[in-house]
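Narrative of activities, Objective 1.

The group set out to show that a structural description can be obtained from nothing but a protein's sequence at a throughput compatible with the screening campaign. Below is one input-output pair from the validation batch, recorded exactly as produced.
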Amino acid sequence: MKQLNGRAHKFGDNINTDYIIAGKYKFKSTDMNDMAKHLMEDIRPHFYDEIEDGDFIVAGHNFGMGSSREQAPLVIKAAGVSAVIAKDFARIFYRNCINVGLPVIECDTSNIDEGDELRVDLEKGYVFNVTKDSRIKATALPPVMVKILNEGGLAEHFKKHGGFNLE
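Output recorded for this entry:
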């Protein structure tokens, strides 16, 4: 996977899936591009308008806690966010991100500020803060996860290989 480049959009700890996409939209549409317009709107109105393709959501601890709805990572991806970077993630949210092809990076986000320009290398496991000229060690993703992400998620991986191809 090539390096990812974009700006940081900073959030705090314990961002739950209802903050990512409010439950009131869950049954109103199945169009993720339409739902993406409501990304984080309860905690940051008009957030969707701030995002440029390739940008990052950066957060603290326990990102994606709450319900296991798959719409949360799908909406983030549809909004053009290239990856979510956080200190740690709720287990089911993390798995759902990989399944839908949205990269997740675990690292210390304390020294990343709103608007910082970032470059991420998933395979080598680092986040480079271009703005601050600093490198942050991240938890490298296992090669199988990188392969699944490169292929667009688990469903696309299965379509391509007729099942798991872990080699």
